[in-house]
Design goal:
Layout (H helix, E strand, L loop, with lengths): L1 E4 L2 E4 L8 E3 L10 E8 L6 H20 L7 E8 L4 H13 L4 E4 L3 H14 L3 E3 L15 E3 L5 H15 L3 E6 L3 H16 L3 E2 L5 E2 L8 H10 L3 E4 L3 H13 L5 E4 L6 H7 L7 E5 L5 H14 L7 H18 L4 H8 L3 E4 L2 E4 L11 E7 L2 E4 L7
Parallel strand pairs: 3-5, 4-5, 4-6, 6-7, 7-8, 9-10, 9-11, 9-12, 12-13, 13-14
Antiparallel strand pairs: 1-2, 14-17, 15-16, 17-18
Helix pairs in contact: 1-10, 2-3, 4-5, 7-8, 10-11
């Protein structure tokens, strides 16, 4: 069967027999290969997200290789575990630089992406972060960095508008997990509450370590603050525990999570306490291309893609198109070509701002219903 996706002609379902380095470091980037370093969490609480993103990257690389590769060079993926941990991420980044990779596509957690960013910048390597999207990634003036997701500050703006316009909640508690992403979004939310005339419950952001599993102290603070709404800016594993403990403590405040809280693991982990909770995210891709991607992913891996799988797929496409446009796999030429990116991927049209931010991605509010995330019937107007 022949079919078209994202403007590229493919024959049948691409095989997964691409050549890639998984967990090991190549001695150097071969002249015959386009080596893409892939730092992702393959261990730890966010390992499932890392696996889902990497699976999608393998699909993209296999398809591109079947069509002749990038400027005549075969894509090779060199995966390194960053564990959503700053120290582990720095080690992964240094290993990839030592391996002389041509480009980077990866990262789910901004807490790993931020310490990697200057390492890749000094090495002059083009970087396309697949899911990491802390606003802090766009403030360092790194000319080699591009985000497949728009800046996470949009989550805060959407949530604040949702609390005000649709939920009619005026006293909002903000809880972050002290991660780079979580604190940046919490700060953005604090500002958005003020601009919307809403009150920060308790007068300060509540912060918990990313490893914390007992939320009794922060729950007590939320209860005493009189909060009628809660905005959580951390990741899904902790979010599930927090929601269960909030319910057990009798807290009735409406729970809204940022996009980092979205994962099937949250739904299963939170159980009945998760029903009716909300989360903000960029509008889910729709249309023939994403439907085709989802079908291929399910067939290849016998499971549904994760929330960020399609962005991992597009991260590889972005680099491949830049290399083909530059007719080169030289890092400096790819960086120059990335600035001119303009194509429709499986996640929609992809263009970048001068600082590498993804442009044109609207937000939406999801609600947990019948064991899955669905678009909420009411959406705020920004």
């Amino acid at each position: 069967m022949r079919f078209a996706t994202s403007g590229l002609l493919v024959t049948g379902l691409v095989a997964l027999s691409i050549s890639f380095q998984a967990g090991g470091v190549a001695s150097a980037a071969s002249k015959s290969n386009f080596v893409i370093g892939v730092p992702l969490p393959m261990t730890g609480a966010e390992a499932s997200a890392g696996t889902e993103i990497f699976n999608a990257m393998k699909l993209a690389a296999s398809k591109i290789n079947s069509q002749g590769g990038v400027a005549g060079h075969k894509i090779v993926l060199n995966e390194q575990d960053s564990a959503c941990d700053a120290t582990t991420a720095v080690n992964a980044a240094n290993l990839l630089v030592s391996a002389h990779v041509n480009a980077i596509a990866g990262e789910y957690c901004s807490s790993a992406a931020l310490p990697e960013q200057p390492i890749f910048s000094r090495a002059g390597i083009p970087v396309v972060f697949a899911a990491a999207n802390s606003p802090a990634l766009l403030t360092g003036h790194f000319k080699n960095t591009f985000l497949t997701l728009a800046s996470g500050s949009g989550d805060a703006a959407e949530a604040a508008a949702f609390f005000k316009q649709d939920l009619k909640e005026t006293k909002i508690a903000i809880i972050d997990d002290q991660s780079a992403y979580g604190t940046a979004i919490a700060d953005a939310m604090s500002a958005d509450l003020r601009s919307n005339g809403l009150t920060l419950a308790g007068g300060a952001i509540q912060a918990v370590p990313a490893t914390q599993t007992d939320f009794s102290s922060v729950i007590a603070a939320v209860k005493s603050s009189g909060a009628t709404g809660i905005f959580w800016t951390g990741y899904y594993a902790q979010a599930a525990l927090l929601v269960k403990q909030l319910a057990a403590a009798g807290v009735k405040a409406t729970f809204v999570g940022s996009e980092a809280a979205i994962d099937a693991t949250f739904i299963t982990g939170a159980g009945s306490a998760g029903i009716g909770t909300y989360a903000t995210e960029f509008v889910s891709p729709s249309g023939k291309a994403i439907n085709l991607f989802n079908a291929h992913y399910r067939k290849a891996f016998k499971s549904a893609p994760g929330p960020y799988s399609s962005y991992g797929y597009d991260a590889i496409q972005i680099l491949a198109r830049a290399g083909n446009a530059a007719k080169s796999i030289q890092p400096s030429k790819i960086i120059a070509a990335l600035r001119k990116t303009n194509f429709v991927g499986v996640t929609g049209r992809i263009k970048f701002s001068p600082v590498g931010a993804r442009l044109g991605m609207p937000e939406e509010v999801l609600v947990v219903k019948n064991g899955q995330y669905v678009k909420n019937s009411v959406q705020p107007k920004l």
